[in-house]
Amino acid sequence: AVFQTLLDPAGTALSSPEAELADDAAAGGGSPTWWQHPDGYEMVLPAGWTGVAVDASDNVYVADADNGRIQKFDSNGYFVAAWGSDGLGGTQAFYHPAAVAVHGSTVYVLDEKELSGAVTASVIYSFDTAGGNAASEVELFEGPGYGGIAVDTDYLYLTHKVNRTVTLFDRGNFTSTVSWNIDFGSGPGQLQAPTGIATDGANVYISDTVNHRIQKYDINGSYAGVQWDVPAFSDSHLALDADGNVYFPEHTLHRVLRFSPAGVLNGVIGETGTGAGQFTTPYGVAVTSTGEV
Fold first, then answer.
1. DSSP string over the chain
2. Cβ-contact 286, 241 below 8 angstroms
3. pLDDT one digit per residue (tens) for the chain, 293 residues
4. pTM of the model
């Protein structure tokens, strides 16, 4: 694994995080497993909205919301870097990062920004994959950053649960935006609380917390005539694999559901528990280039 220079929470340099992790693995016996942190970098998981994404090299990025930082791991689960208010690599201070997406060498983070008192605005930051200071920032809407983000070659897609909107940003120019004209409601193609979103560059899938369903659209926001119910209330993110299957973490029932592009359930991953392959309230999901979830 590759490590940047790390500090513990007291600001003391860790001289050899690689050796520290190797010692931890040896003490536990067997090979290291997900995830491997230097001491003091344990994840603090919030009650929801923990986004996860992978890049082309299958590095994994996690929105560590309650710690106010993004953490990066390699494909074997070794800690690579962290940035944010409690991370390293710059002065970026996150408020409560909720979602993360990666395209090429750019990492996009959906966060909140404090305006005054308890008032916040949703904001998107972009970074290179090494973290550091935000390369660019766009302030979106007043209100918490509850939603999801997805990215393809041309656009960054944002769902915003509070404002009940789906917005597209030109990846090359964040000031260029298009808002889908989708009616509020429970009819075909309508949305009440859009949350998770995923795209393959031709199709866009959106989960709706209030309507308890996933719907399919084209990239222009036209309803594609495909929808299916999900069996429980779930503010979860979505992911797609190379075959177009849609993955939906069903956090109230502690499992991940896999659907075909037509909405046919074709897989169930996990069960309740804390052991290997078990879940307690999963929210984020991502699929690697080799099909690992």
1. -----EE-TTS-EES-HHHHHHHHHHHH-SS--S-B--TT------SS---EEE-TT--EEEEEGGGTEEEEE-TTSBEEEEEETTSSSSS---S---EEEEETTEEEEEEEEEEETTEEEEEEEEEETTEEEEEEEEEEEES---EEEEE-SSEEEEEETTTTEEEEEETTEEEEEEE----BSSSTT-BSSEEEEEE-SSEEEEEETTTTEEEEEETTS-EEEEEEE-SS------EE-TT--EEEEETTTTEEEEE-TTS-EEEEE--BSSSTT-BSS-------TTS--
2. no
3. 222 333 333 334 334 434 444 444 344 333 344 555 655 555 655 444 578 999 999 999 988 777 778 888 888 888 888 887 644 444 567 777 889 999 988 899 888 777 766 667 778 888 888 775 555 666 666 665 578 999 999 999 998 887 788 988 888 777 667 888 889 999 999 999 898 999 999 999 999 988 999 999 999 999 999 999 987 666 788 999 999 999 998 888 888 899 999 999 999 988 888 777 788 888 889 999 989 89
4. 0.82
Query: Which two three-digit tokens encode residue 154?
Result: 């041309």
